[in-house]
Design goal:
about 475 residues, alpha+beta
Amino acid sequence: MCTFLSNPCYLKHFQLNYTQIFAYEHMGNYVMDRKTKEKKFEDMPIYVRIGMHLLFNQSYLSQTLLGEKRVDKLLKDQSFKQGQIYDREDPAIVQPHIQSFVETYEIDTSQLLQPDLNAYKTFNEFFARRLKPDARPIDAPHDPTIITSVADCRLTVWNNVTTATKVWVKGKHFSVPELLGDAKLAEEKFGANPSLAIFRLAPADYHRFHSPCTGTFSAPTSQGSKYYTVNPQAVNTELDVFTANRRDIRVIESNIPSASALTTPVGFVAIGALLVGSIGWTDRSEGYRAEKGDDIGWFQYGGSTVIIVFPSDHIKWDDDLADASEQGIEVQVRVGEHIGQAIGVAPVQAPHSPNAEPVAPSSYPVRLWRNQRAPGSALNRFAKRDPQLYPVSLAAIMLAITATGGYFLAQKSQTHDAAKSFGTITPAWEAHKPGDNVSEWKHRFKTRRGVEGDLGTILSQGEGSDRSLKPGWMREGEWC
């Protein structure tokens, strides 16, 4: 039993540690390590703290002598000046700065594609450093139902905008139409209450961002002109951080399936912040196609954020991320980590070997071999005879075979259902038996009439084939 004098346990109800005080006074915030579940307090850099107090302090100085416009100009000018400094190529300035940064933030240089720090000509070049290909493995790279992290970051996820604005994003005018800068696009692609994931990159993080899914990108459009900090202490106030800051917007027509469609639109918004010089893209062109996990762009120095947007009720975020977000706690994740999954669609079963890739999810687990070489002979001769009509004709053949898949797969009803649902089975079927020598596999084509025909040798992808039509997909197993 607690006694008033000998064991003053009542004091625990009144004690505040310094981190709680710092959080209350906008000096930092809590972040959870996803693996260990440990919560740690991250102090806010002094330059961010000064900027925030200039913006949020309601004193006579900030309201009258400085004014909001002057503070905005101060932050913008400082961001550009800092960017110019970080683009200098003077080794006497660059190398000490890089060395100090590596030591301060304990950067693992063994993961760098270019581990020689002296090879970086500017600090921004180092800041947008690339990693070795195996440094960030991508979860389920061939399963379109799985969503992966776009960045090394502090992550929050939200099933809908309503919840996000209640718990996390407090900006006066925040909405998806404002974020995208296009009300019509927001309504047509994402509806009234879409899902969000917010990836905040701290200065110490790897500052390249990657595609969360496979798909085709629109060309980027730019919005905003501010350079507010994206620190949670700013996002959790009435300041319109995400809808006022300089940002680039792209829409991905992804291969993420849903219960009603084969594709899902994904909004991808890269947001600059205090001291960020620029946002860069690997490819800015309309129709650029990226695979899940591909490096698609970078931020230069400073804090920065990516927001991805999904139509409502399309994605289920991982439970640990959703639970932490509801408590107002960011979770540290890395590029390629599993963060969510498409709703209402079963995941694709992993293939047996590195040469096998699943084609599409269904209500049944299906394995399909991806032949790295396209069927030649008959198709190749047709392509040479009429190359302009070839892609259209091949697409028509594929659709016809998908529609009549029951004829070919009468004894394989489960695979047939997958093919009929997703339309990805092509005219080339694998004719080997388990245990056959893979180097001696023959590829045969069964026509709609059931006539077996040998397509002969296999030609290289690109000759007599259309890569976008996936003519090399085949079912693994016995002749069907």
